[in-house]
Specification:
The complex is a heterotrimer of chains A (517), B (119) and C (89). With 517 residues, chain A is mostly helical. Chain A has one domain (49-467, 476-511): Ribonucleotide Reductase, subunit A (Orthogonal Bundle). In chain A, 59% of the residues lie in helices and 3% in strands. In chain A, strands 1-2 form a two-stranded antiparallel ribbon. In chain A, strands 3-4 form a two-stranded antiparallel ribbon. In chain A, strand 3 and strand 4 form a beta hairpin. Chain A is globular, with a radius of gyration of 24 Å. Chain A starts with 11 loop residues before the first helix and ends with a helix. By secondary structure, chain B is of the alpha+beta class. Chain B has a single domain, classed as Phenol hydroxylase (Ubiquitin-like (UB roll)), CATH 3.10.20. A 5-stranded mixed beta sheet of chain B has the order 2-1-5-3-4, with no helix packed on it. Chain B is globular and about 55 Å long. The termini of chain B are far apart. Chain C is an alpha+beta fold. Chain C has one domain (3-86): Alpha-Beta Complex (Phenol Hydroxylase P2 Protein). Chain C has helices spanning 12-24, 49-56, 65-68, and strands at 3-9, 29-33, 36-42, 44-48, 69-72, 75-78, 82-86. In chain C, the strands form 2 sheets. Chain C has a 4-stranded antiparallel beta sheet. In chain C, strands 4-7-6 form a 3-stranded antiparallel beta sheet. In chain C, strand 2 and strand 3 (36-42) form a beta hairpin. In chain C, helix 1 crosses helix 2.
């Protein structure tokens, strides 16, 4: 009897079809609108969810296989790093402050991304995007875990890593990344996907992971390099998903275009503001520098982003707003941000310092239009004062932007000598902004941003002291009380790198690692 | 435009005046002196004399800068919400019409920061 | 014409992959950075399974790329035999 032998293995396309379709159904006990209550209120119109296609055509069985492989590689390296006292192979102990900032400011966002994608996946009526969101949600919790795990090796030896979870909701500067993600996760599922899937993952994460992580490798930090690249290997898939989201939404209905464009404008700007921290890490916190923030911006945003938006023009999408300002700012923001952290080093859970002479020369060379003229004089002044025992610690709380929550450190586009002030009156209250971008984002949804938990205002409202603390008592020290509330140890976690416990310990241990005495 | 939401969405502002225990917030920035990396936020009683802020509060927050001691306060130019503003040291914040979360800037002509760099 | 790129970790697994990509895309330029290689190409770039298999002497599933992939740009089109990155403009 002739029997047709069926093909042994399904092709990639067929397998993807089988494993991502026919998994959903039209509900009958409850209406689809009740089961998916967030699917329509944002105004996005979807006519055919089956048009969704994951370009990588990754299915859950392959997903587990490759992720398991990545984990094995990751833990092999992390173990080797720990067993070999890897923390002593970094260029110098100042570097460790960059990874403190990473653990405190970025890893918790990975966890929030996990929650966000789980939520968005649950809310989409289409099966294709739900599978993609599920994978991304799992990726994100893996990133949070691998980062925490990897950086816990540093926590054994250095200060400032110990309470990242507690600090996230309290410490002033951490309200910047936290509020960014809270803003995204409290939006609807489509806005979340455009915010995080597209604007953050596609347009901006390369700047975070690629040059910074390559920089970690360059500075001898195998642990960070490993979690960074391991995370980034998922990121390529996330970026592809982000681009697919945009194409899918735009192809479904012409009415979706203006909504998506507004989200792209908003989230590119919001993400760009958060990346100020990364700019500062690259220019000031890596003892061995790989590329400047400005160069990374040019490669990963201007070149790649330029190609992307040129491609999306066929849908009627234009490049994000305020790019002209961003173009001018790239010479300045990393220096301005470092100045803020240098000012407020007493209230930080990492150390700051004045760059060495060669580092300043590197900055002059990378920033010929700005560094010597505007930033070197202030760094040299601070250095002179510090030598005299008068290191500058700013003890007065700064004015914050209502939208991005960053201290108002940014200058007028085209005038680096003038702080940029913008304000809006809304329902008898005044609100202040660092930029036209942040102001316009507020004006679009004022009811959302009037709720901002601005750390400076919260301190003045008396909400940032431990229970039982009496701010009216005689001799009350507000800074000490706030640091207690943060669980930040004065003199260990904060202040200048010079003279810090981290500096002394690193020197002593490295000495022990290379000598017999 | 409010916010896209599945039901009514209105909230009290987190920073309304009543939350500050009798103080109001006053923002203050010294133009061309970015050694202080951002303007300041100060909680002040509305009955505070403006001159007391300049004479008793500002030295504590700006005194680190060598330009500060050189300031001739009679020549200082004040701006409120970016517009020229007439200061009066003998009036209180309330009498000067300064409201909760008003932003003041001051300019000190001739004093342009460390080595003229606006620092 | 816009550029696409693919960035891979520098390790033993990727040595042959990078070599295959460069052979299949004469217009591509490899840019070596600490611990990684970024391959830039005008217009489009193709990763071909058969070329990799020839170099490594075993079967290769293109999805194995995920293990060592760092980043990429452009529209992705993946089949069993090829992964193509391209821009439409």
């Amino acid at each position: 009897m002739d029997m047709k032998v069926s093909k042994k293995k399904l092709g990639l396309k067929e397998k993807y079809q089988h494993m991502t379709r026919g998994l959903g159904w039209e509900t009958t006990y409850q209406s689809m609108d009740e089961v998916f209550p967030y699917a329509k209120y944002e105004g996005i119109k979807i006519h055919d969810w089956d048009k969704w296609e994951d370009p990588f055509r990754l299915t859950m069985d392959s997903y587990w296989k490759y992720q398991a492989e990545k984990e094995r590689k990751f833990y092999a390296i992390i173990d080797a790093h720990a067993q070999n006292n890897g923390h002593l192979s970094v260029t110098d102990a100042r570097y460790i402050n960059a990874v403190k900032l990473f653990l405190n400011g970025i890893s918790p966002l990975e966890y929030m991304a996990h929650r966000g994608f789980a939520h968005a996946g649950r809310q989409f009526p289409g099966v294709g995007p739900r599978v993609a969101c599920l994978m991304q949600s799992l990726d994100e919790i893996r990133h949070a875990q691998t980062q925490i795990h990897s950086l816990s090796n540093y926590n054994k030896y250095y200060n400032g890593f110990h309470e990242y979870r507690h600090m996230l909701e309290r410490v002033w500067y951490l309200s910047v990344p936290r509020s960014f993600f809270d803003d995204a996760i409290t939006a609807g599922p489509f806005e979340f996907m455009v915010a995080i899937g597209f604007s953050f993952e596609y347009v901006l994460t390369n700047l975070l992971f690629v040059p910074f992580v390559s920089g970690a490798a360059y500075n001898g930090d195998m642990g960070t390099m490993t979690f960074g690249f391991s995370a980034q290997s998922d990121e390529a898939r996330h970026m592809t998903l982000g681009l697919e989201v945009i194409k899918f939404i735009l192809e479904q209905d012409p009415d979706n275009l203006p909504i998506v464009q507004q989200w792209i404008d908003k989230w590119t700007w919001r993400g760009y503001r958060v990346l100020t921290l990364v700019g500062m890490m690259m220019d000031y916190m890596l003892p061995k520098r790989i590329m400047s923030w400005k160069e990374a911006w040019e490669v990963y945003f201007e070149e790649n982003g330029g190609a992307l938006f040129k491609d999306l023009a066929r849908y009627g999408i234009r490049p994000p707003k305020w790019l002209d300002q961003i173009e001018k700012d790239k010479d300045h923001i990393s220096h301005q941000a470092w100045a803020v952290f240098y000012n407020y080093a007493a209230a930080c859970n990492f150390h700051t310092w004045i760059p060495t002479d060669d580092e300043m020369d590197w900055l002059s060379q990378k920033y010929p239009n700005s560094f010597d003229k505007y930033y070197r004089p202030r760094l040299e002044f601070w250095r002179e004062e510090a030598k005299k025992g008068n290191r500058f610690y700013n003890k007065t709380l700064p004015m914050l932007c209502q939208t991005c929550q960053i201290p108002m450190l940014f200058t007028e586009p085209g005038d680096p000598t003038q702080i940029c002030y913008r304000e809006v009156d809304y329902k008898d209250n005044k609100y202040h902004f660092c930029s036209d971008g942040c102001k316009e984002i507020f004006e679009h949804e004022p009811e959302k941003y009037i709720q901002s938990w601005l750390p400076v205002h919260q301190i003045y409202q008396g909400n940032c002291f431990n229970e039982g603390v009496d701010p009216t008592a005689e001799g009350f020290d507000p800074l000490a009380a706030v640091l207690d509330y943060y669980h930040l140890n004065f003199g260990r976690d904060n202040l200048d790198f010079e003279g810090s416990e981290d500096q002394k310990n690193f020197d002593a241990w490295r000495g022990m690692a290379t000598k017999n005495t | 435009m409010g916010v896209a939401a599945i039901k009514e969405y209105t909230f009290e502002p987190a920073d309304r005046l009543e939350n500050f225990h009798g103080n109001q917030l006053l923002y203050i920035g010294w133009d061309q002196h970015l050694l202080f990396a951002a303007p300041f936020c100060l909680p002040m009683p509305p009955a505070m004399r403006f001159g007391d802020i300049v004479e008793k509060v500002l030295p504590g927050i700006y005194g680190y800068h060598p330009d500060f001691a050189q300031i001739d306060w009679s020549k200082v130019e004040w701006l409120k919400s970016g517009q020229p503003w007439q200061a009066d040291f003998d009036k209180t914040l309330a009498e000067l019409g300064l409201k909760h979360k008003d932003a003041l800037r001051f300019r000190t002509p001739g004093l342009n920061g460390i080595k003229g760099s606006a620092s | 014409m816009s550029k696409v790129f693919i960035a891979l970790q520098t390790n033993d697994d990727t040595r042959s992959i990078i070599q295959a990509i460069l052979a299949d895309n004469p217009h591509a330029i490899a840019n070596e950075q600490p611990a990684m290689v970024k391959i830039d190409a005008e217009g489009s770039l193709v990763v071909r399974r058969s070329s990799i298999e020839e170099l490594i002497g075993r079967d290769f599933d293109l999805q194995e790329l995920h293990i060592n992939l760092i980043s990429l740009t452009g529209h992705v089109d993946e089949t069993d035999d090829e992964l193509t990155l391209s821009w439409n403009t």
